[in-house]
């Protein structure tokens, strides 16, 4: 096991400060309350339950003591960063910059008319 690994586990215990997860080979890791999700957590028991199957990321591993620190939050942030990419086109309609190109001559005409009107 190494830092950055994504592993599946089962929540076996919940405390006010975090949740204990059983990983493969009966190894137990802790998801600290700050690593459950982004933002404030009022009540950990409203988010997680004993028996929940979870996919977590290893954020620290002590080979000597075999303690494992886990995170759900890093995977949540990873999904958010890849969920959508902003583009200046509309992929769904496959029209790209076409509406801008079609509107440009009219915008130029309006701009020139406005300049002529101001110069007057």
Q: Note the overall shape.
A: rod-shaped
Q: Would you report the number of β strands?
A: 5
User: What composes the largest sheet?
Assistant: 5 strands, mixed, barrel
**Class by SSE composition:** alpha+beta
Tell me the name of the CATH homologous superfamily of the largest domain: Nucleic acid-binding proteins
Oligomer: single chain
| Count of helical regions | 2
Q: In percent, how helical is the residue content?
A: 25-40%
Order of helices and strands: EEEEEHH
Strand order of the biggest β-sheet: 1-2-3-5-4
CATH architecture of the largest domain: Beta Barrel
Describe what this molecule looks like in 3D:
Helix content is 28%, strand content 29%. It has helices at 73-83, 98-119, and strands at residues 6-15, 18-22, 28-32, 53-62, 67-71. The protein has a 5-stranded mixed barrel. A hairpin with a 2-residue loop joins strand 1 (6-15) and strand 2. The protein has 120 residues and is α+β, with helices and mostly antiparallel strands.
Summarize the structure.
With 120 residues, the protein is α+β, with helices and mostly antiparallel strands. It has helices at residues 73-83, 98-119; strands spanning 6-15, 18-22, 28-32, 53-62, 67-71.
């Amino acid at each position: 096991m190494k830092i950055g690994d994504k592993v599946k586990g089962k929540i076996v215990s919940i405390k006010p400060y975090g949740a204990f997860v059983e990983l493969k080979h009966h190894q137990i890791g802790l998801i600290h309350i700050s690593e459950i999700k982004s933002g404030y957590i009022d009540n950990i028991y409203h988010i997680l339950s004993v028996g929940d199957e979870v996919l977590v990321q290893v954020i620290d591993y002590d080979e000597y003591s075999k303690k494992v620190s886990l995170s759900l939050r890093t995977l949540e942030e990873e999904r958010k960063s890849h969920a959508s990419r902003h583009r200046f086109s509309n992929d769904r309609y496959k029209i790209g910059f076409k509406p801008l190109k079609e509107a440009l001559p009219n915008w130029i005409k309006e701009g020139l008319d406005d300049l002529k009107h101001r110069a007057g």
